[in-house]
Write the structure tokens for this entry.
Amino acid sequence: MKYVLVTGGVVSGLGKGVTASSIGLLLKACGLRVTAIKIDPYLNTDAGTMSPFEHGEVFVLDDGGEVDLDLGNYERFMDIKLTRDNNITTGKIYQFVIDKERKGDYLGKTVQVVPHITDAIQEWIERVAHIPVDGKTGPADVCVIELGGTIGDIESMPFIQALGQFSYRVGAGNFCLVHVSLVPVLNVVGEQKTKPTQHSVRGLRGQGLTPHILACRSTTALDENAKGKLSQFCLIQEENIVTLYDVPNIWHIPMLLRDQKAHEAILKVLNLYDVAQEPSLEEWTRRAEACDLLHEPVHIALVGKYTGLSDAYLSILKALVHASVDCRKKLFVDWISATNLEDATAKENPDAYKTAWKLLKGADGVLVPGGFGDRGVQGKILAAKYARENRIPYLGICLGMQIAVIEFARSVLGVHDANSTEFDPNAKNPVIIFMPEGSKTHMGGTMRLGSRRTFFQTKECKSAKLYGCKGFIEERHRHRYEVNPDLVACLENAGLSFTGKDETGKRMEIVELPNHPYFIGVQFHPEFKSRPGKPSPLFLGFIAAACGKLDNLLQHSSNVESNGLSKAVGTGVSAVKTHNKKTAMKPAYRPEYVYGSCNGYHY
Ligand code: GLN
């Protein structure tokens, strides 16, 4: 097993996760099998209890692991399926060591950070790196490890110490350290400044780690002078210094690394240069370039608890991008804070109310994402009602599905106080109820989590067709509440159709309005399994519906069963005129996202 460690210096938010993912993809394109580990030095056992508005979304894995969103990037870029143990936190390591201590496994010794915590970290890395994650048997060739945070953080010290020891343990030729750093350009002098990077490399060396490759984030390619200085002061050969300069979208980054021969530098350090092949990235290049040229807009209203951090809905944004690119549309996400749609806002802040409704009414599709708690619920219900009544494509994910069911019960069945017991524990008409297996006292890892099966009840529904008319599908879950099974018959009689259920037939997984152009709610999170080039079927259907191409897509669904979705897409939506105009507008660069708009700012 060979290891590539990715560390970060100077500031956080340099795109270390995307760099680690791109390195993994690039090595995979060289014919190697790859896996990935993310180290988060915080004390939480996992990301499950962390607020998405502080830390970004909680990504959910097949095994139910609630992990850092970077694991989502690894899965999407490297097309792998990780396990909960691929995300190491200080909390997990300490819990493991303390449990061992309580069992008496340390035989009377004083338990210390060095060697007990540092040994536990090394053993964990080695064990997890050997778990196959690409559907094949046997371990991968290379494991990419990303160390969260910035060099110098107090909490990452034990990890750095452990990784220093680890690099000795695995030996030269098996360990490559890529340090991602910032080279700012000061406006006044317009010069690329290398000092911050020099300091962070010094910090790294001071803690026993020697970088082999420097990946410098800068607005433009590093000039010779800056490169020379970095090489001299950081003791790194010039050919091992690459620039991650601004590109139109993040899918270009693997090519950016390849063009600067980062793969050759890494392969040489790992003694793999002779066995690896030239990277083949044709499909990625085509997709990244096609993405830059898109200009026909599709506007999606994202009605959430939005408070300014779009990372809170990262996988949803990615899934929307995957589907839009496939439909040859440029995605604009119109963020709507659900509370702004509510009557109370009309009085308190009429401008925000007007803007929110204007965005909703101007959207080609309405998406209500997952969420917890009752803030903005009324606004989300109004959004679902608007989409249902005005025949605007609607995709409700998890909470978004529950909202659609509550809205239907209230407006169509006339049960005005229909509610979820999550929002009103004493609801007289609970259409959404607490699941027996959940816990209300312990929040970490107590939901219905991970990959579960959904069985289609009929082939004659949009979701079954989009998924290729398979008998069942497997998608990832994260919820405590569900549709009240006692009310299903009543809701169905009024026109709602539960087209997907779990293996018992009692738990509702997919709801559709058959006579609506596209109104689908799902209890699971299809966004977690969407990939560039392999968009989630429900997102693809949603975007296709939003741009009036759903029929085109569904027409080909009959041969999806035998040929897979891509065939339907290839002959369907993707066959729709592509726009290769040179004059197409290029979006401004944001490292994390491809396209979207945030409060009117399009990126
Ligand atoms: N709060 C809802 C539940 O727990 C929905 C969860 C979600 O959207 N992920 O069931």
